[in-house]
Amino acid sequence: MSYKHCKMNDPIRLEPIMPKHIYFAFIALLQCLIRIAMAVAICGTTSVMAAPMQLLVPAYFDPTDNLADWNRMIAAARSGVPITAIMNPNSGPGDAIDPSYVRVLKRFRAAGGKVLGYVPSGYTGHDVYPDGSCKAANGTTYTVEDVVGCAARYKQYYTIDGIFIDEFGAPANGAPFNKVYRFYRDIYNGLKAVDTYWHIMGNPGVAISRKFLRLGNDGAADTLVTFEDVAAVYAKTQPSRYVFDYSADRFAHILIETSATFDVVTTLKLTAKRNVGYFYATDDTLPNPYDRLPTTWKAEVAAVREFNARKHQ
Questions:
Q1: DSSP 3-state of 202
Q2: What predicted TM-score, i.e. pTM, was given to this entire model?
Q3: pLDDT in tens, 130-176
Q4: Together in a domain, 42 and 111
Q5: Looking at residue 247, which CATH number applies to its domain?
Q6: Cα separation of 210 and 213, whole Å?
Q7: Number of domains in the chain
């Protein structure tokens, strides 16, 4: 939308208390600013309304062992369904470049998919997984520098679109809110220093304070996963009221252990009603429900495609 033709139409006929040329210029400028503000408000609202539902796939399967599922994601992305895959070579980026990931990520991103790199954060640093590729310098707790340094290796090894921070939140025995908030805010700032264009997604897996959502110079994540649990409890789990103050792409829901009677279409509608823009459901089970795509993958892709088509009619 162009704003170069803003002109005062018919000046208000009041006796100005300043020179007429300054008065008229001021009124014209004011009218221009009002029109710009109205246009921005309208465009902003339209973009939020038009944001498509996206599939968020924790793709914790190596393309060397399971190239077939990566190919299925590539085909879905090529068909126009928005997909973000979370890559996870070894509870982090691994210790060296894996050529199989380089090849498959190039194809996936060329098809229109986006990729986030998985990093653990140990619930404010407290829980360290010793066998993963993200190490704690002191061996017992992650520091901000440990998490950022681990994530930075993704940029060395691969071309990706952002970082997925797992174990996002307070430890089991609790911690002062401000300590938890500063930990993740500083991680966010550190990640943006590595790559300012990265999209940062935090995974508390449950409802969490809205303060963690990035807004201006505050916050710790561009998107929050506010549900990650078995599908059986999804309908009864109510979202925080504040989610309706933001665009849907600020929130993601992940459902695991879906049953044979799981209705993806109905569940997707409920997810959208809760103002959530990223969705994934799988019948895979613990301890690792993300080592393959769900058996209902085709139905899930079709449901998202149809939902987005109806939304934009």
A1: strand
A2: 0.84
A3: 889 999 999 899 999 999 999 999 999 999 999 999 999 999 999 99
A4: no
A5: 3.20.20.80
A6: 6
A7: 2
Residues 154, 251 within the same domain: yes
User: Which range of residues forms the domain containing residue 6?
Assistant: 1-50
Share in percent of the chain as helix, strand, coil (round to 5): 40, 15, 45
Q: Are 46 and 98 members of one domain?
A: no
- In the chain, what is the straight-line distance between the N-terminal and C-terminal CA atoms, in Å? 22
In this structure, the answer to whether residues 21 and 86 fall within a common structural domain is no
Say which residue the tokens 């707790």 belong to: 141
Instruction: For residues 70-99, give the mean pLDDT.
Output: 98
Given this model, what pLDDT does residue 51 score?
79
Q: What is the mean pLDDT of the chain?
A: 89
CA distance 142 to 133: 13
149 and 258 in a common domain:
yes
> Which of 87, 88, 175 is CA-nearest to residue 125?
175
As a whole number, mean pLDDT of residues 88-113 equals: 98
